[in-house]
Amino acid sequence: MERVDGGYFELFAPAHPGDRYFLIVDENQPVPDPVSRLLPEGVHGRTEIVDPSRFTWTNSNWRGLPLENYVIYELHVGTFTPQGTFDAAIQKLPYLKSLGITVIEIMPVAAFPGTRNWGYDGVSPYAVQDSYGGPEGLRRLVNAAHAEGLGVILDVVYNHLGNEGNYLRLFGPYFTAQHETPWGEAINYDQPGSQGVRQYVVENVLYWIREYHLDGLRLDAVQTIQDESPKHILAEISENAAKLASGLGRQVCVIAETDENDARMARPRADDGYGLHAVWSDDFHHAVHAFFTGERKGYYQDFGKPQQIVRALNEGFVFQGEPFRFWDGRPRGSSSRGMPAPAHVICIQNHDQVGNRAQGERLTALVPRGVRMLAAALLLLAPETPLLFMGQEFDEPHPFQFFTDYGDPTLQKAVSEGRRNEFKDFDFHSNDVPDPQDPATFERSKLSWPLTQGENVILDWYRSLLALRRRYVMPCERTCKASLENGVITMQVPAAEPRLKLVARMQGDARLPETDAGWEKVLSEEADGYAVIISVSSD
Prior knowledge:
With 539 residues, this protein is of the alpha/beta class.
């Protein structure tokens, strides 16, 4: 290859789709191309050339969805179906559509070691995991989803790369010791040589939107991205994504995951914000989980009061600058004033909150059915953007556990021992923490689809709630007025001239008020001492 301007190298040679090649960079070590579209031999193997123009799209009339219409369903391709492929997921799209989902969020699919991984150990950001079906499989899934009227967003990781198969540092100053992250050296967004690194990441954002017709991206753990540049990489991502979306005539959403309650993420760039569309707003989950489970370890130590659920419903963030004990008393968060409710993506379960437990238990194993139904009602009728984690809608009993498939013996040992050590201060024997490398850990995490057949009280409840949301929450102003009195939460949507009202008994000895004149009860449930009554305006 010959050196050209900007520190790049190039070579022109005859090539065809299906051809495979290595790059030899250092000491005759052959490695895959850092912009591989496909690695069929694994993360250490040759790059295969893919022609993205060969796929025949049939979604020319699809223009995306506004964030206000998002009901997100997070899924992991490998455990969503028995087959664990994009094509198998296509068969479930009619089910998701009938459930009331509008957007599926796919956990990361960038190539990772082996065939079993959550996806956050990806090492080739442009390559689609071959065992899932590769680039063509992902295109088929997106195309089929759009035909069903469903949007598709993808989880991407720009805060670190995995260890095994990470050859990126051979190609330039992609990492820097100037900043530290939980995974070691940070990706270089602001040190010498960072211009090429930033371009590599921004082009990756555009690649997913352009080549795979994705409706948006979810950016993993952006609080661990360190960037002191005049323009933060997140602002550069949002700016470029918006420009491409405009040119394509499509709506594209970029959503950030962060635990910092930082309203700057969703503030317009003109107002010194990053211009992202929404953030994963954890406080609603933490407030609900801590109150109903009684758990107070880790970040749950700052939660557990029912008033916090009310504030999360009304304002999105619970902590808006108050001291946070889990942060050693440092202030956490900023005011959410000015953030529209849909800019808060809320949940009662997601891959992190389930899978990062020692045994990966879902709410099915932690709280009674009455709690699960009450929490689902708050989630799905709130004005914020709701996210469901695959299987929660039919009370999936299987856990979702942490699994890996490293080939490197050192990493195999490190991840198995590290997972046990992570929970040594909790009430678990080390043998009770599943080994991530054990294939059985992966198999245990697959969904139980037979539960969707026949009678399923929880599934019917979710369908009913989502039908109410479509009719009474989606079209109206996305605000609410929630209050707490004598152990009862009342939520009215929207805040002014409400059309829907939810009354929930949070504690067993609380009395529910009678349905007011002018309201018609349309859905209710009482179980395990908890109760929910949902009414709509009859005016």
